[in-house]
Amino acid sequence: MRGVLLALEGVDRCGKTTQAARLAETLRQRGHTVETWRFPDRTTATGKLLDAYLSRAAEMDGRVAHLLFSANRWEKADQLLRTLQRGVHVLLDRYAYSGVAFSAAVNQLDIDWCRATERGLPAPDRVFYLDVSPAAAAARGGYGGERYESVPLQEQVRRVFLEHLYDAGRWHVVPADGSVEQVHQQLLPLVLECVEAAEHHNTPVGTLW
Ligand code: DGP
């Protein structure tokens, strides 16, 4: 049986990384094999350029940044498919949805143009959008000064996520203003349902979009 591909999405500081780690820990305790993958992956060649861009050490055109973020996902796509084929469940901490939402919102790029570079990537079986207001997210320990960390920009990003990318068949919007444990308790049954359903029908991994 292949692993399931699950994506956690949301604005900056919505709790994706914390929830991905909590979910992985709980799934492992229940005997599942799980990996968490984070995008952008700042360790690769494109990731190093993106790290410089995000920390404002380098400037680049918004389209160039979008293509690099997209390349950063594409360069891991084969490895992602191979991991799923080994029966490993993968929790993605951001994915192509962030790619479109951030690039379209912060650089005022055409949404269809942004979506086009993601077309053909492995499609998550489920997307969990952790919904927190950008003002509440900013209040959580504050922003670290990276390029997109401002409340008005994040409001625009949230609008693209929910108005243009939300897909009723694949997305769960999970209220994420609560404590780490409260959000985990909301996510866990939804994630377990996907993992357990996959054990009964071995459908091939889909592709975006
Ligand atoms: P993180 O490492 O999760 O804090 O993400 C870094 C920042 O990069 C965050 O503000 C979201 C943004 N980001 C992630 N993926 C993309 C993308 O594909 N395009 C653009 N423009 N921004 C992205």
Automatic annotation (TrEMBL):
Keywords: ATP-binding, Kinase, Nucleotide biosynthesis, Nucleotide-binding, Transferase. One of its GO terms (cellular component) is cytosol. One of its GO terms (molecular function) is dTMP kinase activity. The keyword Metal-binding does not apply. Gene3D superfamilies: P-loop containing nucleotide triphosphate hydrolases. Pathway: Pyrimidine metabolism; dTTP biosynthesis. Belongs to the thymidylate kinase family. HAMAP family: Thymidylate_kinase. This is Thymidylate kinase. It comes from Cyanidium caldarium (Red alga). The lineage of its organism: Eukaryota, Rhodophyta, Bangiophyceae, Cyanidiales, Cyanidiaceae.
